[in-house]
Amino acid sequence: MNENIIPLHTFSNDDFVHILRIEDAEEFYFESFHRHDFYQILLFDNIAENGQIFIDTKQFPILEERVYIILPGQIHSMRPANKKGWGISLSKDFFFSTSTPKLQRAPFVPMSSSLNSTVMQAISGLVQLIVNEYRNKNRYQLMDIYLKAFFFQVCPFMVINESKNVNDLRILQLLDLIEQHYVEHKDCAFYADCLSVSKKRVNELTKTSVGKTVKQLLQERLVSEIKREIMFGQCSLKEISYQLGFNEPSYFTRFFKKHTCLTPEEYKSSKT
């Protein structure tokens, strides 16, 4: 195993949900920096000690009556000591089946929600139903109903950076394709072919929905990954550049500086 690679926690092909108490989890599950290939909901119900949850390049205070949704690929870590609550992990397919379009539109942004007491009471009841079903028969259809109700309650309170409404399923498919292929496919033509539309049409769709071209979305995702690797990975800048598909480290440096006004070395120094 390459020790320079940030650990990736995965779901088996048969799993669609996994639930645990945060205080009962082994340390490696939360404490060391890692990423998932699934979605994870964190809901805290008792905190004896203030703390932070690190998600990519940002820190968020861990507070009671707050929901955090961690997206696939986001590097994160927290100290679970003296914190109680639920960790609910969902496969990608199950998340898209049960969540709302608003949540599905934000693939690159950490999401958090501060709930009022009325909503928290409803959420607590739904979580208990979800946990009871998980521990017993774990029926897909019933879990689907409970999770849809959960997201319906939580969604209005979620803090998400979104620009415009996305009602076209093709945009959601495109965002998922970018997440899967942004390293090896940096050209709009690949994504247009996957969606069976022209390059002009796919750019029209993205401009209308999220205010950006496909190229801008790809560049945004790539910059985000470079920042993650610089901050949390153990690879050299040269290794990062090759891992992310840059043929020359000099082009890697120019690309990053163009989008951040800093060279990779300057960005690394600013975070240490």
Structural commentary:
The structure is a single chain. The mean pLDDT is 86. The protein is globular, with a radius of gyration of 19 Å. It has a 6-stranded antiparallel beta sheet with strand order 2-9-4-7-10-11. The chain has a 3-stranded antiparallel beta sheet with strand order 6-5-8, with no helix packed on it. It has 272 residues and is of the alpha+beta class.
Q: What is the topological layout?
A:
Elements (H helix, E strand, L loop, with lengths): L7 E2 L7 E5 L5 H4 L4 E2 L2 E9 L4 E4 L2 E4 L4 E5 L5 E3 L4 E8 L1 H7 L2 H4 L6 E4 L2 H19 L4 H15 L3 E2 L9 H13 L6 H8 L3 H12 L3 H19 L4 H7 L5 H12 L3 H7 L2
Parallel strand pairs: 1-3
Antiparallel strand pairs: 2-9, 4-7, 4-9, 5-6, 5-8, 7-10, 10-11
Helix pairs in contact: 4-5, 7-8
Features:
6-stranded antiparallel β-sheet, 3-stranded antiparallel β-sheet, alpha+beta, 11 strands, 272 residues, Arc Repressor Mutant, subunit A, single chain, Jelly Rolls, 18% strand
Short description:
Helices cover 47% and strands 18% of the residues. It contains twelve helices and eleven strands.
Q: Give a quick account of the main beta sheet: strands, pairing sense, barrel closure.
A: 6 strands, antiparallel
CATH class of the largest domain: Mainly Beta
- Say what oligomer this is: single chain
How many distinct beta strands? 11
Query: Structural class, from secondary structure content?
Result: alpha+beta
Number of domains in the coordinates?
2
CATH superfamily descriptor of the largest domain: Regulatory protein AraC
Order of SSEs = EEHEEEEEEEHHEHHEHHHHHHH
Kindly identify the CATH topology of the largest domain: Jelly Rolls
Intertermini distance = 27 Å
CATH architecture of the largest domain: Sandwich
